[in-house]
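Example record

The entry below shows one chain as it appears in the dataset: sequence first, then structure tokens.
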Amino acid sequence: MKPLLKKSFVEERTEEISEGDNLKSKDYDSLFRTAHGAFDAIRELIPKNVKKEFDVLSDDFYYHMDKLHFYIEMQVYKQGLTDGFELAKILLPDIYDNISK
């Protein structure tokens, strides 16, 4: 079935990167396991009578950290696009002039 809306280049590229091997590397896997291992160790130190409150706070923390990481990623992506266009102006002035008209 054909999608109703055409995906933008950014959406296609984001899916391509997230589904590719970039996030399946040994480095990523190691960092992921280390971070979650540290969190599990911290959680074990929390007294049982405040675990529910800790879980609520940690969920809130992770939610906002995810939003922060997304914001940073979008800024880096936008800057990469901007830099790419600036580089195209320098390296391919004739082609860039025809595209930008």
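Notes for this example: The chain has a mean pLDDT of 84. The two ends are 36 Å apart (CA to CA).
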